[in-house]
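Thread title: Can someone regenerate the structure for this chain?

I was given the following input by a collaborator and told the matching structure tokens would be attached. They weren't. Posting the sequence so someone can regenerate them.
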Amino acid sequence: MTINVLLVEDQKLIRVGLKSLFEGEIVVSSEAQSGKEAIEKYKISKPDIVLMDIGLPDISGIEASKRIIEFDPKAKIIILTAHLSEQEVINSLHAGARAYALKDIGTDTLKMVIKTVYEGAMWLDPQVVPILREKNCGVIPPRQMSRAMFKEQHANLTQREYEVLKLVVDGLSNSEIAQELTISEHTAKAHVCNIIQKLVVDDRTQAAVKALKEGLV
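Best answer:
Regenerated them for you:
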């Protein structure tokens, strides 16, 4: 398996540094130095992952992400930025980004994030989660009902599925969920599929967002 990445970064030194981190199953197959170039490169190469900076010389990475998602709603975009701006976090998720990471992220963690998003999960830097939970931002609003009410509405979720759902919200992949709960990866995948079906959503990202919106986690 090879994960092809479109790297969007206007600073050459950072691009070279990021490219040097990846080997084996993660490959930077194309690069862009601006938002508009990123959109064109995406349309041409259709990469598995877009690693997107926000501060670009023409349009922002957030706007570029929005346009890429409009072109391909299944695009998997990871925002990689040096800034922890509340509004940028909110706008990035509104634009359709699957992950928000800060540039001080560790090498191994960044690789894990890329693999996690590739597998269909979302991932948020730990510093980002409190912003989304505490602010009425329209992406993940404050808790709107008690856990008891949520469970009453979704009583068909088993206790194990609640445990799995929490780990999905935390951004864990199926293999990581399996390791955390000491179950097989096949079982973890089955639980995730059941959760998606029972919550009437299309994928694990929507399941995680719905869980946060409804106040389960």
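Residues 140-147 have pLDDT under 50 and may be disordered.
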